[in-house]
Amino acid sequence: MLKFNLLFSLLLIMANNMMAQSTHASAHALNQKEQHMVLVSAYTARGDMAALARALNDGLNAGLTISELKETLVQLYAYTGFPRSLNALHKLMEVLADRKKNGLTDLPGKEPTPLPASHTMLQTGTTNQTKLVGTPVTGAVYQFAPAIDRFLKEHLFGAIFSRDNLDWKTRELVTISALAAMDGAAPQLRSHFNVGIYNGLTANQLSALVNIIESNINKQRGLVAREVLQSVLDKKAYTANPWLTEAIFPTGQKIDNNNFVGTAWLQPLVQPDSNNKLQVGNVSFEPGARTKWHKHPAGQILLAIDGLGYYQEQGSAKRLLRKGDVVKCPADTPHWHGAAPDEKFIQVAINSIEAGVTVWLNEVTEEEYKSAPVNDE
Ligand code: MN
Q1: 217 DSSP 8-state letter
Q2: What is the rounded CA–CA span in Å between residue 363 and residue 258?
Q3: Ligand 1 centre distance from Cα of residue 289 (Å)
């Protein structure tokens, strides 16, 4: 028996070590400098200047050179726009000046080698782009707007990607980090995961990058980036999950009672207790979904946080609800709320449970649902 226990313990220790090693490998798939590069790029993309200052300081402490950081922020203008890039360059100037004042000496790094004058930027950029992606880049959008094709080639892949103070693998790391931190860039993120892999970034490194986005930058952006990365690794098409890409709170569970028409989801956020009698929940309505008519004994507060919703009190016209709208529904007043026919709607509902529970009434008729809203601009 003792022997068995010993063997079992030994196996357990071995299993634990193996698990520790695989987690270890994933966390350290990117070296210190690369990890700081991810943070610098992501904070630049989000315009979070206080966090960027910390990331720049940490990056310089880890041995990133002034040239590498400057080049990162210059390249990012192509992906995040001049305002974000210029703000970040100003922040780098400030950080460097502060560090100098405090007696810290930062490594200048190497300047890019001057380019030979024998080729036009369009030729150089076309060659670079083809080499970076592995195949000539074509697409309907470049025929529709030839200027964007020329600017991408001449400027991004010509002028910027020819500068050799950052290698292409690092340039892709920077681009992917910025795109992962931004809203609405999933198609570009997907392309750059592929280009990153083609230029030597491993699945482990990209997974480590996504972990950094999820734990340091924004949880939702990290979850989206993970789905996009998984679609690339599985060689499957990426279908955007609308709840994941825009929701603040989790979507929660599908509501399966008959007080709702269509599909709606509930994530409880706060449960009432003896000191605080408020119940708070996040309700996500799919397009066309709505509640039945109902009333709350102590009224209700609705905070519209995404999409386009409807709200109507008995005897009044229907109102449109947009992100940021607040409704204070009076006590015992019949009303309904839900999503517009073609758009989802997400609300936070705050109810006081002290006076009693919600009273459910009739279904909202099609005429009521489709009636003209009073505040349609
Ligand atoms: Mn209500």
Answers
A1: I
A2: 10
A3: 14
- pLDDT confidence of residue 12: 45
The two three-digit tokens of residue 114, written as one number: 């001057």
Distances (CA, A) of 176 to 45, 170, 172, 173: 11, 10, 6, 5
First to last CA, the chain: 79
C-beta atoms surrounding 72 within 10 Å: 28
Distance CA 182, CA 166 (A): 22
**What residue type is assigned to position 270 of the chain?**
V
- Count of CB atoms situated within 10 Å of the CB of 337: 25
How many Cβ atoms are within 10 Å of 80's Cβ, its own excluded? 24
Say what the pTM is.
0.73
CA 337–ligand 1 middle distance (angstroms): 7
Distance 366 CA to ligand 1 centre (A): 19
User: Rounded to an integer, what distance in angstroms lies between the CA atom of residue 37 and that of residue 26?
Assistant: 17
Specify the DSSP class assigned to residue 201: -
Ligand 1 centroid to Cα of residue 370, in Å, is 19
Low-confidence ranges of the chain (pLDDT < 70): 1-27, 242-247, 376-377
Ligand 1 centroid distance, CA of 287 (Å): 18
All structural domains of the chain: 19-112+163-245 (1.20.1290.10), 253-370 (2.60.120.10)
pLDDT digits (tens, 9 = 90+) for 200-220: 999 999 999 999 999 999 888
Kindly give the distance from the C-alpha atom of residue 317 to the centroid of ligand 1, in angstroms, as a whole number.
16
Residue 310 CA to ligand 1 centre (angstroms): 11
